[in-house]
Amino acid sequence: MKAIFLDRDGTINEEVDYLLRKEDIKLIDGTIDALDIFKKLGFLNIIITNQSAVARGFLTIHKLDSIHKEMVHLLQKDGINLIDDIFYSPYHIDGIIPEFKKNSGDRKPGTGLIEKAQKKYNIDLKNSFLIGDSLSDMKCALNAGLKSVLVLTGYGQKTLKECEKENLELYHAAVNLLDAANFIENKLRKR
Description:
By secondary structure, the chain is an alpha/beta fold. It has helices at residues 31-40, 52-55, 61-74, 112-121, 135-144, 156-165, 177-190, and strands spanning 2-6, 43-50, 76-77, 80-81, 85-89, 129-132, 147-151, 172-174.
């Protein structure tokens, strides 16, 4: 099994600092088409996302789950779910909710969420990708041995400069998720 690991905010939906209400989900143009391309290429589409809003007390797990349920509902094509699973890290050391106020390897750039998904779905990491808009996404990809694709939506422009400054090599930088999907599709077709 191979997977596309997807960051959520700034990659799939527009960055709004903290997404606290399902009514505020606004998908980035081309997202559904991109996810459909990945499915047709035989990838699992798995969201991996840091959600420190839980640790910070802005959001309950129940509310986060309802946001994710709505997101899965929105990310369909012809009645077929384009998202196979969502893994999230509710932890942050600066949190105020005691059970989530801690360091966790699940929090990107840690690879805990990738490891959980890999175990659950028997994922071949060498043939999988991580697509995101932040430095922690790109470092997570590197730490997990995934091909890193930076999207220039969300914080992507700023992240591109940070990656250059840190000499962090990217597999590819894409305008948005659809551009990333087209790039990956072309790469695979050339094999």
